[in-house]
Amino acid sequence: MLDFARVQKELVECSKDAEGSGIKVSPKSDNLVLLIGTIPGPVGTPYEGGIFQIDITLPDGYPFEPPKMQFKTKVCLFSSDHCLSELVAVMVWIFVWHPNISSQSGAICLDILKDQWSPALTLKTALLSVQALLSAPQPDDPQDAVVAQQYLKDYQTFVNTARYWTESFAKESTRGIEDKVQKLVEMGFPEAQVRSVLEAVGGDENLALERLL
Amino acid sequence: MEDYATSDDDFHYSSDQEDSVDAYENDDQDYALLSSKGPTTQVITKESLLAAQREDLRRVMDMLSVKEQHARTLLIFHRWDVEKLFAVYVDKGISFLFAEAGVSVDEHRESDSVASAVMCLICMEDVPSNELTRMDCGHGFCNSCWIEHFIVKINEGQSKRIRCMAHKCNSICDEAVVRTLLSRQHPDMAEKYERFLLESYIEDNKRVKWCPSTPHCGNAIRVDEDELCEVECSCGVQFCFKCLSEAHSPCSCLMWELWAKKCRDESETVNWITVHTKPCPKCHKPVEKNGGCNLVSCICGQAFCWLCGGATGREHTWSSIAGHSCGRYKEQEKTAERAKRDLYRYMHYHNRYKAHTDSFKIESKLKETIQGKVAISEEKDSTLRDYSWVNNGLSRLFRSRRVLSYSYAFAFYMFGDELFKDEMTEAQREIKQNLFEDQQQQLEANVEKLSKILEEPFETFSDDKVMEIRMQIINLSTVIDKLCQKMYECIENDLLGSLHHGIHSIAPYKSKGIERASELSVCWGNNVNDTEMLLSEKDYCIYAASVGVTAELDRPSGSGSSDDSGCSSRKRARKEGLGGGFFDLNLPAEFVDRN
């Protein structure tokens, strides 16, 4: 079964030097099974400036089994007149354009998350490896064949696309808290409630929306 | 055929009878030497698995002077190929060998007694140093973390390669440590671990395969030399070691796979229906045209055009139907012709394949008759005491029937379009086909002759007449054996050998039938005879099942003689009369059964 004591310690450990590494891990739920990791895009890459969120699911066997990680996808709800009961369309977007990350699902192709996992690794070291993967794509072992082809054949277009995706999506989450509050209030939720919920979920707009609903 | 018979004349028709028998047996022995140098296959039972594994472990331990667990790790990494392991050792040195397989022999176990409590980097708890275990690689973690790790890995099926928990440490965990840690709290997991380690010898070893019997007999077979061979497990199942299906030489594995599938499939029936019938446009039942013009009327009363299958009226002449015209005549006829030709070709080969399998079935019934005849003969006040030649002839007959039936499946693919269309020109194919068919026909003719002679009521004959029959049977057996041998050689060298994309190879011909795997030496004490008995009994069952009859067998009671125990048993067999000759490989149990 899941070793809660260790996960707790990891979270504490991680928050200690969150400033230095920029890597954060926060629980999404109370049971410590679902977590959200945050990594800054590495400097000098098309991902620079982006803040990438990663959904983490801890299996029962953690840390003896690897954590499941995938880039967070964004569900956009297109509704008419901000009325959430009349949903028109649902779209799934993912924020990162990378040969080893599926542009459809956000699944990450990284050996330490599969057979090379070692119980001595932690969530933080795993996230660091993911960050390293952003700096050093491995197009020969691709998760997303389309992106990998582009990377190999038309590098410039790849860089442009990756940068565009970073600009459009990953930076969104860095928007000021006021913007988020305003957006949620516009949807028709009371401001005080919006603020407290946003704070509770660590500023995650989607999560806040889920709670508010 | 005449050639062979005459060339052997001086052996068989000269001097007295005893001599000629010896000549025949010597002949046989030569073949045995040619085709196999003693038993090259061994049965590994549950009991002997450990011994078999030990054998290889011992070699590596002695050679490299390492502990058993390290030898095992090395061997598992090299898939139990000792030769390959030694080759790597010679080429690249011992440190490479160890590093590659994840063996650390350096003792890193410094004393931990200095600190009373150490932090385990996995659970991040402080643990007393006596609850911390270090592996050979030097990495130490607390016992409960190790146990947790082992359980996860064993459940993942990774028993054979449980790596150290440290990141990027390629070391394989010390077997003894795994054992001790697990056995305390999780004896079931420890047992599972042991079993996996043991079975790795079979699963990871290219020279060893599980016997394909169902229900599984629990045995595995190890071959010493060529993996391309046919073997008989001690449970009686005969199989091709390469593809694990029934023994099928002189068919190649691929051919047999295709053939078996073709025979199983209903596709040929479907084919026949498409060639010979058309669905009624009204009731959709297949309609066969039994003559007449192209206006066909179905049993349901609907009239339709045989050429296009469309519904029509009934007004017609011989050449046209009123108010109906269709122009697809030529095209349809062509495809139908082709399908028809393929079907006939398949039927030709399949009928012959089946015919030999069927006569095998009928001839198996000969056993009782023959035994009766032999019994009567033995009762007679005669100078002849030895009737082993009857059994020898019979087993030769069975064996050659088998070769013949599979040879038709072989020919179907060898000279068909399916596999080798681009390999041969029409002319080449014709030459090869003639060559092969000549041999096949010679063999077939002799086999039928032998079959006929074996049915003679020799028990009523005079001694002279019996001697004559005996001579004929012995001669024919020798001839047939040689013809089989020649046919295999022809297939191997002239037919398959000349292919450019030759992926086809066949198991070599064994004059004495499919080799029965010997028990691994560790089990020699165990009633070998009983095993052998059981074995031929099952063989019959399996054969019977394959030709679609229900086998009813008596429990074996007599003593058989093992085929590989060499000359002494052979002599004994002869002295005992019919007590299980050395030719008993394909015999139903009852033959060997008789004491």
Automatic annotation (TrEMBL), chain A:
It comes from Flemingia macrophylla. The active site is at C109 (glycyl thioester intermediate). Pfam families: UBA, UQ_con. The keyword Nucleotide-binding applies. Coiled coil: none annotated. Belongs to the ubiquitin-conjugating enzyme family. The keyword Nucleus does not apply. InterPro entries: UBA, UBA-like_sf, UBC, UBC27_UBA, UBQ-conjugating_AS, UBQ-conjugating_enzyme/RWD. SMART domains: UBA, UBCc. Residues 2-171 form the UBC core domain. Residues 176-213 form the UBA domain. CDD domains: UBA_II_E2_UBC27_like, UBCc_UBE2K. It comes from the Eukaryota. Gene3D superfamilies: DNA helicase RuvA subunit, C-terminal domain, Ubiquitin Conjugating Enzyme. This is E2 ubiquitin-conjugating enzyme. Keywords: ATP-binding, Nucleotide-binding, Transferase, Ubl conjugation pathway. GO terms for molecular function: ATP binding; transferase activity.
UniProtKB/TrEMBL annotation, chain B:
Residues 557-568 have a biased composition (Low complexity). Residues 116-330, 120-168 form the RING-type domain. It is an enzyme of class 2 (transferase). InterPro entries: Ariadne, ARIH1-like_UBL, E3_UB_ligase_RBR, IBR_dom, Parkin-like_IBR, TRIAD_supradom, Znf_RING, Znf_RING/FYVE/PHD. Keywords: Metal-binding, Repeat, Transferase, Ubl conjugation pathway, Zinc, Zinc-finger. It comes from the Eukaryota. GO terms for molecular function: ubiquitin protein ligase activity; zinc ion binding. Residues 1-22, 554-580 are annotated as: Disordered. It catalyses: [E2 ubiquitin-conjugating enzyme]-S-ubiquitinyl-L-cysteine + [acceptor protein]-L-lysine = [E2 ubiquitin-conjugating enzyme]-L-cysteine + [acceptor protein]-N(6)-ubiquitinyl-L-lysine. Its EC number is 2.3.2.31. Pathway: Protein modification; protein ubiquitination. Signal peptide: none annotated. Might act as an E3 ubiquitin-protein ligase, or as part of E3 complex, which accepts ubiquitin from specific E2 ubiquitin-conjugating enzymes and then transfers it to substrates. Belongs to the RBR family. Ariadne subfamily. This is RBR-type E3 ubiquitin transferase. It comes from Flemingia macrophylla. The lineage of its organism: Eukaryota, Viridiplantae, Streptophyta, Embryophyta, Tracheophyta.
